[in-house]
């Protein structure tokens, strides 16, 4: 299968560090800010951002994992239902600035569902979206990221794969591949 | 796996171990949902569910209705006492009439064993058995297994004693199937007249002495004496039953270990459980009720998502 590298380990590390500095610029001392990683693939990313922010600014920003499976608009419309994951949020988002974090922004439907799920924890003051990869030509909903690592043109016939060392891969890397047609 | 192998939940016997595990995993997600400030998710907003109860129920019916509403389903309720069933309408006609009003799922309790199975062969909707006579009560078994898992970390390898009126209990049968699928050891205990013949052929231990059963088990699931189903006398008096099979604080204190006490409700206080046991820290009876909503949400959600 053809694979094309989008970001390598060094570029991902630089991107994460850039994210942190952008967040510090916009959120100052993070007094009223929380980070939510979207299940299943935004959770590792949110943990990395929290650790990096702690290293850079010494602040531990409250964070959690948000699962939007029960809020998706494709339930009963997919061949196979999606499996739910754990939602782990030990705070209310009422009046908070929330940063939703995911690895890839594709159609925007997951983010829409996530915003719906998030409202169950209160009315946030402001919501921002951070993604490593913005697939800009494939959006179904009018959703744009506030922070993105790389913006790429892809087709619906392609996958964007994000690999992490923590998940057993040799290196952190982001690839584009063709969907298997068989 | 993210899908059940069946589109009806008729009993535990005919679903797979993977189905049970998927339901329990999904129930854990829903337990988190029902503890949120906003306890509702929109998953079943395009689904209508009919709760058809031909037999009395408080907890199960409320629990199903809450589960349905927390999933945003539209709910219609039906009880046989004030319906055309009294005028001689058949079960299939009653249900088909309800379904022609565009109902997608039916939750049914019936006094005849096999009624939901019959229905599942004759109507198009997904059927959930909420108790059929003395046969099965699958969601109760699932919530019992979920409660054990939550309390003890795992069901596999645990010893569970089901104590009381096994003969008339649909909860007992569903529990036996469910716990065995999850790898627990099961014992039934009660007066010999209230134990079905050949029950040991289901692979359960049989014990007549409640003290020995308590000494053996990690979890005691205590059942109610179902006087309404008993056509003849199976034991001399409730007082005598309570004397020999009632569980009280003193018996638990005599054990050299901690055990978990469960009861599917309604409790006959002073008969199968004394009040000081029912209200003690050993009992997880109210947790079972809370878990019931989460488990039923999981069942309805997964059945609604099942294809075909």
From TrEMBL, chain A:
- One of its Pfam families is Pribosyltran
User: Could you say which enzyme class this protein belongs to?
Assistant: transferase
Q: Name one GO molecular function term.
A: uracil phosphoribosyltransferase activity
Q: Which SUPFAM superfamilies match?
A: PRTase-like
EC number(s) for this protein? 2.4.2.9
**Annotated keywords:** Glycosyltransferase, Transferase
Q: The Phosphoribosyltransferase domain covers which part of the protein? A: 7-159
Q: What is this protein called?
A: Bifunctional pyr operon transcriptional regulator/uracil phosphoribosyltransferase PyrR
**Gene symbol?**
pyrR
From TrEMBL, chain B:
Q: In which pathway does it act?
A: Pyrimidine metabolism; UMP biosynthesis via de novo pathway; (S)-dihydroorotate from bicarbonate: step 2/3
> EC number(s) per UniProt?
2.1.3.2
Its catalytic activity? carbamoyl phosphate + L-aspartate = N-carbamoyl-L-aspartate + phosphate + H(+)
| SUPFAM superfamilies on file | Aspartate/ornithine carbamoyltransferase (SSF53671)
Where on the tree of life does the source sit, at the highest rank?
Bacteria
Gene Ontology molecular function, alphabetical? aspartate carbamoyltransferase activity
Report the InterPro entries cross-referenced here.
Asp/Orn_carbamoyltranf_P-bd, Asp/Orn_carbamoylTrfase, Asp/Orn_carbamoylTrfase_sf, Asp_carbamoyltransf, Asp_carbamoyltransf_Asp/Orn-bd
Locate the residues binding carbamoyl phosphate: 59-60, 109, 137, 140, 265-266
Q: Which positions fall inside the Aspartate/ornithine carbamoyltransferase Asp/Orn-binding domain?
A: 157-303
- Which keywords does UniProt give here? Pyrimidine biosynthesis, Transferase
Q: Which residues bind L-aspartate?
A: 87, 170, 224
Q: Pinpoint the Aspartate/ornithine carbamoyltransferase carbamoyl-P binding domain residues.
A: 7-150
Identify its protein family. Belongs to the aspartate/ornithine carbamoyltransferase superfamily. ATCase family.
Q: Which HAMAP family does the entry link to?
A: Asp_carb_tr
* Quaternary structure and partners: Heterododecamer (2C3:3R2) of six catalytic PyrB chains organized as two trimers (C3), and six regulatory PyrI chains organized as three dimers (R2).
What is the recorded function of this protein according to its Swiss-Prot or TrEMBL entry? Catalyzes the condensation of carbamoyl phosphate and aspartate to form carbamoyl aspartate and inorganic phosphate, the committed step in the de novo pyrimidine nucleotide biosynthesis pathway.
Q: What is this protein called?
A: Aspartate carbamoyltransferase
**Species of the source:** Algoriphagus pacificus
